[in-house]
Specification:
The chain is an alpha/beta fold. The chain contains 13 helices and 10 strands. Strand 9, helix 10 and strand 10 form a beta-alpha-beta unit. The structure holds 1-O-phosphono-beta-D-fructofuranose. Its EC number is 4.1.2.13.
Length: about 375
């Protein structure tokens, strides 16, 4: 029997699935430029630039005014509230600059963590109060997707059952509210890579977290075809002494996803989670070449792994605009290159011609 109280009309479902598919079309991924003021402060501190609104605006102007061909690699950009209403030095809104390039606009909707009492320093994410009104306003202002990041940590008794359930439920409630307002929800349950756990443990935890998230999304009647998932790759913790190849990371990651993420989800866009730009590229390449079934688009929604060299090239100086844009473009283009080359050839083993060609190309541009 069909659902008696459908959450969305056929027109709403069509709009949502079209937006999701546009973002991940033809090897495109997402630029996560949604660092909060505090997070951007950490990034700017590393290049010894003061964390002022004007400096944040200047860096983002350089990224967004890059050559139009960026739209071949970047399907969507996630913005922070402040950035959505900022303008370039000629007075043009960033959102108009991005839209004219055919890039879909997204917005960070979560509002920071709150402690879960009685746990080992675990958190839930705030921002559900007033979320529907915020989504409605953002939709009017040209935004078509949202992002909500939940953080799960691997440690003694972590993640707890409470943290997994609470964060899964908050993600599902957020996703439902987004869809009611015409925004595609990016669902981001990040198992962070802090700690000395091995890759196998990360896979176990990632599977538990994703299984809980998809149960909650189903309970909340979320239309999966109109969502995107932004997960961590399955890797060892930063302090783990055992090292893994990109092929091992790919096998563990695709296995975890294959066991837990329904095929109705159109795209999975990984976060980079503090990986180097090179590792983020090689791992994503290996994921796309992994010879397991992959019913979804497998792409990127990187923050640091798309901006680290660009930030370093900029160094807070307007005179470095060209070098900054070149560094950003290079990172975006190389990912699009192999996403297209691996997809057009289907699933390939690591000995295949295409795999070797892509690896050779990637090594030559680092
Ligand atoms: O891990 P990365 O790829 O740098 O960033 C992923 C991300 O979700 O985490 C950041 C911090 O919240 C956000 O700015 C960004 O969207």
């Amino acid at each position: 029997m069909a659902h008696q109280f459908p959450a969305l009309t056929p027109e709403q479902r069509k709009e949502l699935s079209e937006i999701a598919q546009r973002i991940v079309a033809n090897g495109k991924g997402i630029l996560a430029a949604d660092e909060s003021v505090g997070t951007m402060g950490n990034r700017l501190q590393r290049i010894k630039v003061e964390n002022t609104e004007e400096n944040r605006r200047q860096f983002r102007e350089i990224l967004f005014t890059v050559d139009n061909s960026i739209n071949q690699s970047i399907g969507g950009v996630i913005l922070f509230h402040e950035t959505l209403y900022q303008k370039d030095s000629q007075g043009k809104l960033f959102r108009d600059i991005l839209k004219e390039k055919g890039i879909v606009l997204g917005i960070k909707l979560d509002q920071g963590g709150a402690p879960l009492a009685g746990t080992n320093k675990e958190t839930t994410i705030q921002g559900l109060d007033g979320l529907s009104e915020r989504c409605a306003q953002y939709k009017k202002d040209g935004v078509d997707f949202g992002k909500w990041r939940a953080v799960l940590r691997i440690d003694k008794q972590c993640p707890s059952h409470l943290a997994i359930q609470e964060n899964a439920n908050a993600l599902a409630r957020y996703a439902s509210i987004c869809q009611q307002n015409g925004l595609v929800p990016i669902v981001e349950p990040e198992v962070i890579p802090d700690g000395d756990h091995d890759m196998e443990h990360c896979q176990y935890v990632t599977e538990k977290v994703l299984a809980a998230v998809y149960k909650a999304l189903n309970d909340h009647h979320v239309y999966l075809e109109g969502t995107l998932l932004k997960p961590n790759m399955v890797t060892a913790g930063h302090a783990c002494t055992k090292k893994y190849t990109p092929e091992q990371v790919a096998m563990a990651t695709v296995t975890a996803l294959y066991r837990t993420v329904p095929a109705a989800v159109p795209g999975i866009c990984f976060l980079s989670g503090g990986m180097s730009e090179e590792d983020a590229t090689l791992n994503l390449n290996a994921i796309n070449l992994c010879p397991l079934p992959k019913p979804w688009k497998l792409s990127f929604s990187y923050g640091r792994a798309l901006q680290a060299s660009a930030l370093a090239a900029w160094g807070g100086k307007a005179a470095n605009k060209k070098a900054t844009q070149e560094a950003f473009m290079k990172r975006a283009l190389v990912r699009n290159y192999y996403l297209l080359s691996t997809r057009s050839s289907g699933s390939l083993g690591s000995g295949s011609h295409c795999f070797l060609q892509a690896m050779k190309y990637l090594q030559s541009v680092f």
